[in-house]
Amino acid sequence: MSQVVFITGGASGLGKTLALTWAARGASVCIGDVNLERGEQTLQELIAAGADALFVKCDITSEADLQDAFDAIMQRWQRIDVVVNNAGIASAGRLESESIEQWQKVLDINLLGMVRCSKQFVGAFKQQGHGYFVNVASQAGLTPIPRMGSYNAVKSAVVAFSETMKLELARDNIGVTVVCPTFFKTNLAESLQTTEPVLHQQVQKYLNRAELTAQQVADAILDGVDKGRFLLTPDKIGKLAYWLKCFMPENWYFKRMLKQSRRMMEK
Asked: Is there a contact between 111 and 165 (Cβ–Cβ < 8 Å)?
C-alpha cells in the first residue's frame, strides 16, 4: 500500500522537492502552503507526473487551517502515514538589532507551527497504530553561528522537541526524524527576516555557493525515514562540525569557532 504524505511548505524549495520525490515512489501527496499560486503550480506538476495529489491552503500559525488540511486528507484517503513539518522562515541579526517582534514571529512559525501541526495529526497516528513525523530543523540548531540568534535558538528547540517526540511516541509506533542540513540551494532567502541588508546579502551568497542541493537533502530524508533514523545531517561538513562539538574539548571547540566567526564577521 502506498504512503499518504502531508508536507507543510510544500509548494517550493525543499518541500516541493520532497513532494515530487515521494510521488515518484508512488506515494499520495498533500502539500500545504500559504502561497496559492505556487501551490497550484506544484499540484499541476505532481498530477502531470501521475501522482495522486492534493493542495490545501495552510498557514501553520492557524489551527483552523491545519484542521481543514487534516479533514481534506482524511476525506480523500482516510489515513495519513507521514507528516513533514517543513514550513518555516529564516531570520538573522545581531542581538541588539533583532526585535522582540522578529523573535516572536520566528518562534510562532518555526517552532509553534510545528507543534500545532504535530498536535493535529498525532491523534490519527495513534488511532491507526502507526505514523511518522519528519521535522526540518537546521545545522544552526546543532552548531550555532553569530548574528542568527532567533533562528539558532528556534532550530535548537526543534531538535529538542523532536527528541521529546521520539521518546514520548515510540510506544505508539510513531517514528520521528529531525533533519539538520547546512546551507543548500533553495529559496530560503525569500523569507529572511532581518533589519541588516548586509546579512541578507551574506545569506544569499551562502545559498548560491552551496554544493548541497534540495534533491540531495530530500533523498537523505526518504532514506532516513526508511531506516528509522532520528538525527539526519545530510552533508559531510555539517556532520563533522557536530561531531567535533560533541567529542572535542570545549575550549578547543570554542577557540576554533571564534576564529571562524571572527573571519566571517570581518567579511
From this structure: no
Report d(CA 4, CA 92) in Å as an integer.
Answer: 35
d(CA 236, CA 234): 7
List the domain range (segments joined by +) for residue 27.
Answer: 4-239
pLDDT in tens, 188-247: 656 676 766 656 556 556 555 657 889 999 999 999 999 999 999 998 888 998 998 999
- What is the spatial distance between Cα 39 and Cα 14, in angstroms, rounded to a whole number? 13
Report yes or no on whether pTM surpasses 0.90. Answer: yes
167's CB contacts (< 8 A; 6+ apart) are none
Q: Coil, strand, or helix at residue 8? A: strand
Closest to 29 in 3D by CA, of 60, 72, 87: 72
Query: Which is catalytic among the residues 151, 206, 242, 253?
Result: 151
- Which conformational region is residue 16 in: left (phi greater than 0), alpha (psi within -120 to 50 degrees), or beta? alpha
> What is the number of domains present in the chain?
1
Is the residue at 257 inside a domain?
A: no
Q: Is 151 a catalytic residue?
A: yes
CATH of the domain at 100: 3.40.50.720
Place of cell 576564529: 259
How big, in percent rounded to 5, are the helix, strand and coil portions of the chain? 60, 15, 25
Phi, psi of 15 (to 5 degrees): -60, -45
Give domain status of residue 78, yes or no: yes
For residue 259, being part of any structural domain is answered with no
Give the E-state strand segments of 51-165 in sequence order.
53-57, 82-85, 131-136
Q: Which residue is associated with the grid cell 576554533?
A: 256
In a domain, 255, yes or no: no
